[in-house]
Amino acid sequence: MEKTEALNTLAALGQETRLDVFRLLIKAGPGGMCAGAIAEHLQVRANTLSTHLSALSRCGLVHAARDGRSITYSARIDQMQNLILYLMRDCCDGKPELCDPIAGALVGFDQTDASGPTSRF
Amino acid sequence: MEKTEALNTLAALGQETRLDVFRLLIKAGPGGMCAGAIAEHLQVRANTLSTHLSALSRCGLVHAARDGRSITYSARIDQMQNLILYLMRDCCDGKPELCDPIAGALVGFDQTDASGPTSRF
DNA sequence: TCCATATTTCGAGTATTCTCGAATTATGGA
DNA sequence: TCCATAATTCGAGAATACTCGAAATATGGA
């Protein structure tokens, strides 16, 4: 990811409704949620939500797929991955002070919803 | 880090001049740079930069320290760390699809400016 | 075909953000 | 004390973002 894309992605997430949408879609899992359900869940008007979904889609954070009359949106975790990697290496120059503690924290995760064992290394 | 702070931090970085400032300060290292030098380097007016520095400071991304007539700003890499950890665990629920590839990428870093050996594990 | 549902697009109003010149505050040195 | 330098605060203008009602588009079913 290069700077401009990172900038757009950061700006997209730096808005409350959009961050809420993304978090909701993450929790919804790979199946995603249709626009109406998101709007209902977050108490946002359909047209306002549509604008935000469009912004999230434009920067690759969500994926849209028509499913009959409704459109299902799902979070693109790989784009979040790209953003985080950008922040760690391009933005922060791969500084060990940044990366080491994160690497450490990754090992210590306790996941509430995952099915597999705790360690992933 | 909780949601509101993450939101402010994301919004702060989602603006070109501020992202540039942060990146510049990261490259400057722990010693930081004084406001004038940053303004000169990025070709931004002093008062405009001051507004952005204030925003970065408010969300904890930079630290200010008066040094005689000038004020030295330095990047707070721990706050970037907190943001990344928020994105990985609170925002993305610690999904393995997100975390595993990042963990993998961390091991593979080749650092250009670090003095120590490549491996940090 | 006609109607209902789901979502988006359009246009306008309001709010927020960004930038700038001018004025102000703070510090150090003559 | 007086002046020069460094940075911030103030106030205003322009641009951008956010939200909303209304209208348009798309799909599925009677």
Automatic annotation (TrEMBL), chains A, B:
- Hydrolase among the record's keywords? no
Q: Which residues form the HTH arsR-type domain?
A: 1-95
Q: Which InterPro entries match?
A: ArsR-like_HTH, HTH_ArsR_DNA-bd_dom, Metal_resp_trans_reg, WH-like_DNA-bd_sf, WH_DNA-bd_sf
Which keywords are on file for this protein?
A: DNA-binding, Transcription, Transcription regulation
Q: Does the keyword 4Fe-4S apply?
A: no
Concerning Pfam families, the annotation shows: HTH_20
State the protein's name. Transcriptional regulator
